[in-house]
């Protein structure tokens, strides 16, 4: 029996790689001779580089860059197995996890380190980029990233604007004449499912600012700063960053990438599955096991499970999901194309217990449903057969 295990991480609990290992152990308890293929997935946030590199047999490149509050951090970007595509994960260099909870400051946080990673990759000769925008600590509209690539952001007296989104209120003009010329030779794809625009009640500052440490007063200041930045860009470039769908992703990094690097926005899971050639792995498999932390109505709008099910449907491969929590009904399971979904949690528990015991619970739950799969091996051919009640 040939089985693909392709989950997303359970955020804050267990990585996609560790889920693959635990599910594999559960499979082997029941079917020791099974051929298991591990394909850890992500949607553009934390884990994107590691998972894409593993799934494509690529390589990781480590660099010391400037962290979100100016500290030196060791960050990585990935080169996929094609030897041409670079994956940059914003969380690596400009991520929220790089700052202690009591030190978060989106007013001053900068995306400069993410720009340094892009520059390092350009120096190495790479020209095709996938940029994952999840998990950022910043709200600077991508200006830090653009500074690292040569742009200048200036005050009325022509002195440089300090780092951080809050200072954009004092921006008088920008100078892009020194923007790295190699960008014109490169292509950039944003892997993100965030559709929020740059400013307003559903913009970057209002929606994502509080989790980055912004008080209600700071949220207002940051929103005004991004709006002012957009006004300057509209005046100089004739493009309105405020109208860009997805422009509010990662504190406005989406808008910065679209405007100055001509980036294209794609669904995180779709671009990741496309780049690692996911469908080639599942053409002749008997079963796919996927998963994510919570299976709910948000999953329907394009998370990892939805992407896996969409690909599996083309090849008539049944899909089973393992999740921390399952909060959808049978009609929504059918809408997704899931054969079934199981919570790994055996009963009420604390978050600490869930984090500690997740691998053990995944092994046990996988073993349980694989006993059923083994008994029906050879009968389960397509999702349609199961739904028609022929089993």
What is the number of helical segments per DSSP (H or I, 4+ residues)?
14
Strand coverage percent: 15-25%
Poorly predicted spans? 380-391
Helix content: 25-40%
Structural class: alpha/beta
SSE order: EHEHEEEHHEHEEEHHHEHHEHEHEHH
Biggest β-sheet: strands ordered side by side in the sheet: 3-4-5-6-9-10
Chain-averaged pLDDT: 92
Shape: elongated
Query: Cα distance, first to last residue?
Result: 19 Å
Gyration radius, in Å: 22 Å
Quantity of strands, as a count:
13
3D architecture notes:
With 391 residues, the protein is α/β, with parallel strands linked by helices. Helices cover 38% and strands 18% of the residues. The chain has 14 helices and 13 strands. The protein has helices spanning 16-30, 48-56, 90-94, 112-123, 143-148, 204-208, 216-237, 249-261, 268-275, 278-282, 304-314, 330-336, 351-376, 383-387; strands at 2-7, 35-38, 59-66, 72-79, 85-89, 128-132, 152-154, 173-175, 187-191, 264-266, 287-295, 319-326, 340-343. The strands form three sheets. It has a six-stranded mixed sheet with strand order 3-4-5-6-9-10, sandwiched between helices. A five-stranded parallel sheet has the order 2-1-11-12-13, with helices on both faces. Helix 11 links the parallel strand 11 (287-295) and strand 12. It is elongated. The two termini are 19 Å apart. Residues 380-391 have low confidence and may be disordered.
């Amino acid at each position: 029996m040939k089985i693909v295990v392709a989950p997303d991480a359970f955020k804050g609990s267990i990585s996609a790689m560790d889920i693959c290992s635990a599910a594999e152990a559960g499979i082997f308890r029941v079917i020791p001779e099974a051929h298991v293929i591990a394909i850890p997935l992500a949607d553009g946030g934390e884990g994107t580089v590691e998972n894409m590199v593993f799934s494509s047999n690529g390589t990781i490149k480590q660099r010391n860059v400037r962290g979100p509050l100016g500290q030196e951090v060791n960050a990585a970007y990935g080169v996929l197995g094609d030897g041409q595509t670079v994956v940059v994960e914003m969380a690596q260099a400009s991520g929220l996890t790089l700052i202690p909870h009591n030190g978060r400051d989106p007013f001053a946080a900068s995306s400069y380190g993410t720009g340094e990673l892009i520059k390092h990759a350009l120096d190495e000769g790479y020209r095709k980029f996938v940029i994952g925008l999840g998990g950022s600590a910043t709200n600077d509209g991508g200006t830090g990233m653009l500074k690292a690539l040569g742009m200048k952001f200036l005050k009325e007296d022509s002195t440089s604007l300090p780092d951080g989104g809050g200072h954009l209120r004092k921006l008088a003009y920008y100078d892009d004449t020194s923007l790295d010329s190699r960008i014109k030779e490169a292509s950039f794809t944003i892997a993100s499912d965030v559709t929020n625009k740059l400013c307003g009640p559903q913009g970057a500052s209002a929606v994502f600012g509080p989790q980055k440490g912004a008080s209600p007063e700071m949220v207002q200041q940051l929103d005004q700063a991004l709006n002012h930045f957009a006004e300057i860009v509209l005046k100089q470039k004739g493009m309105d960053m405020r109208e860009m769908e997805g422009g509010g992703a990662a504190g406005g990094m989406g808008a910065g990438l679209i405007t100055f690097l001509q980036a294209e926005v794609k669904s995180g899971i779709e671009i990741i599955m496309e780049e690692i050639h996911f469908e080639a792995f599942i053409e002749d498999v008997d079963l796919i096991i996927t998963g994510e932390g919570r299976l709910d109505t948000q999953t329907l709008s394009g998370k990892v499970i939805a992407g896996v099910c969409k690909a599996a449907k083309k090849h008539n491969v049944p899909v089973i999901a393992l999740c921390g929590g399952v909060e959808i009904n049978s009609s929504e399971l059918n809408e997704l194309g899931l054969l079934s979904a199981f919570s790994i949690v055996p009963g009420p528990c604390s978050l600490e217990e869930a984090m500690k015991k997740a691998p053990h619970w995944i092994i046990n739950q996988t073993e349980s449903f694989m006993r059923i799969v083994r008994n029906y091996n050879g009968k389960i051919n397509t999702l349609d057969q199961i739904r028609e009640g022929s089993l």
